[in-house]
Amino acid sequence: MSRKFVTDEKDSFKRARSDEQKGERREEILEAAQALLLESETERELSLNDLARRVGMAKSNLYRYFESREAILLELLRREWTGWLVDFEETLRCHERVPLVNDAARHAFLDKLAAMLAKSFAARPFLGRLSAILPTVLEHNVEAQTVFDFKRDAVEFFRRVAALLYETAPLLPPRRYEELLHLSLTALVGAWSFGHPSPEVRAVLHRPELASMRRDFERDFTRHVSLLARALLAESDC
């Protein structure tokens, strides 16, 4: 029985020869990986053995499509950011334009922008989970070219978002908005991790003497980005 399964599996794998078939197989792997992650508590629980079983191929064949588990996670994160941008563009289009004629109005907009960013990330927990482990997990065990491609796409992504923000409210020059986005990513990594602790940590934090250690992602991230944005505005005004 097992021998027949392996034979069928190899035959099925060999049929994925065209670019279209290979693209479809990559999609199957990514969809299966995301499904497994959503069923688990942490990304560490995703194994290539489980993934291979889910898609019905030998583990060795996974390497024909992705060099490592981390490369799969990087691609999933890239897609999450793309989906986030679609949603955030709609949020900005619906934003009511108000005259930014004085410091109070400018600060109010930046505070609202920080809150919008926090809410948009909170609405996409899978993006938050993957972003939180980007520097410590996803960018390890991958080839230099894979990291370069991801970083290059990230640069273009931030430039696009910065241009959208400048079009919405030209408070900061595009390069300053871009800097704000890079700084916001570092804030996202930290605020998401502390705002979504493990079950063991959550249980401990219920103790009254540790009340000050309980963190709320949206509140903390909004505070971080608001302060960063105001600082960049002050520098731009100098």
Query: Count of DSSP E strands?
Result: 0
Please identify the top-level CATH class of the largest domain. Mainly Alpha
Write out the CATH superfamily name of the largest domain: Tetracycline Repressor, domain 2
Mean pLDDT: 89
- Beta-strand percentage range: under 5%
Question: Strand count, sense and closure of the main sheet?
Answer: none
When the domains are counted, the total is: 2
Number of helices: 12
Describe the structure.
By secondary structure, the protein is mainly α. It contains twelve helices and no strands. The protein has helices spanning 2-15, 19-38, 48-55, 59-62, 69-93, 103-122, 125-132, 134-138, 144-168, 174-195, 199-205, 217-237. The protein is globular. Residues 1-13 have low confidence and may be disordered.
Short synopsis of the structure:
This protein is an all-alpha fold and 238 residues long.
List the helices and strands and how they pair.
Blueprint: H1 2-15, H2 19-38, H3 48-55, H4 59-62, H5 69-93, H6 103-122, H7 125-132, H8 134-138, H9 144-168, H10 174-195, H11 199-205, H12 217-237
Please name the defining characteristics of this protein.
238 residues; mainly alpha; Tetracycline Repressor, domain 2; 75% helix; globular
